[in-house]
Amino acid sequence: MKAKLAAIALTTLVTVNSAYAGGSQEVVLTSQVEWEQLNPARGDKSPQAGTLWGDRKGAVPTGFLAKFADGFSSPPHIHNVTYRAVVISGRIHNDDPDAAEMWMPAGSFWTQPKGEVHITAAKGATNVALVEIDRGPYLVLPPEEAFDSGERPINVDASNIVWVDPPGVTTSANGPKVAYLWGNLEDGQSIGTFVKLPAGFTGKIHSHGSTFRAVVVKGQPQYLGYDVKTLKPGSYFGSKGETVHQISSKAGEESIIYVRTDGKYEVVPVQ
């Protein structure tokens, strides 16, 4: 049930050091992502991949964008590592080769356990997913090498995401929301969430962990640093150490951001 996605390409990082912001920050715009074949062995049929952080070929945590052509369908395969993924655009099906089609739209989330045979397919003019692994290398292997890791796949359609009020924020129908996707809420443990910023939001995301990584899923929020950067879907911003990220949503357009961190963070509107 899950898919194959692979990453690549080192991107140009825009690094910002600011006494006001706190820790060291980095921003990667979608226009800066360098694309290459995800699986060169498939030639022109290969999906494209572009790294946001890390290195999928190394033994390090990695996040990358995977781009699939309309009508793409992979042969059955497995991966040596478990990955998590978020649909950024288009529709993606990732499941057991014999499973009924489940076309996940933008804002959907899935996990693909290592060793499990699956296929990945795409339907749409532009099909992009964020893929992240806790440790590489990320390999695509034949189904004959399948094994049971004890993990089970998860597919969550965007329509089934459960939104709640962030801790410490006054409950408001028009305020920011969060959705918990995976991980442990205890301090120092890794966790993955969605953050929804309402249209016209202006405020900050205050990260208290040692590592904070965020990828825009929906909308075009603005990142407010030394200059203003418009973050289109697939854009990334992150930081090391305690950091304040200043961010806003455009009027008339909400934003959804995938956040992976190893500590608590707060979404604080400007009053």
Any key phrases for this structure?
seven-stranded antiparallel beta sheet; globular; 271 residues; Jelly Rolls; mainly beta; 20 strands; eleven-stranded antiparallel beta sheet
Descriptive account of the structure:
- This protein has 271 residues and is mainly beta.
- It folds into 2 domains: 31-159, Jelly Rolls, CATH 2.60.120.10; 177-269, Jelly Rolls (Sandwich).
- The chain has strands at residues 14-16, 22-28, 36-37, 48-53, 62-68, 78-79, 83-95, 109-112, 119-133, 140-141, 154-156, 177-183, 191-197, 202-207, 211-218, 222-224, 228-230, 236-248, 255-261, 265-269.
- The strands form 3 sheets. Strands 1, 2, 12, 13, 14, 15, 16, 17, 18, 19 and 20 form an 11-stranded antiparallel beta sheet that branches. The chain has a 7-stranded antiparallel beta sheet with strand order 3-4-5-9-7-8-11, with no helix packed on it. Strands 6-10 form a two-stranded antiparallel ribbon.
- Strand 16 (222-224) and strand 17 form a beta hairpin.
- It is globular.
- Tell me the number of strands: 20
CATH topology of the largest domain: Jelly Rolls
Q: Give the SSE order as H and E letters.
A: EEEEEEEEEEEEEEEEEEEE
Shape category: globular
In the CATH hierarchy, the architecture of the largest domain is Sandwich
User: Percentage of helical residues?
Assistant: under 10%
Through-space gap between termini: 45 Å
Query: Rounded to an integer, what's the Rg over CA atoms?
Result: 18 Å
Name the CATH homologous superfamily of the largest domain.
Jelly Rolls
Task: Give me the secondary-structure category.
Answer: mainly beta
Strand content: over 45%
Low-confidence stretches: 1-20
Give the class-level CATH name of the largest domain. Mainly Beta
How many H/I helical runs? 0
- Tally the structural domains: 2
Largest sheet: 11 strands, antiparallel
Give the rounded overall mean pLDDT: 88
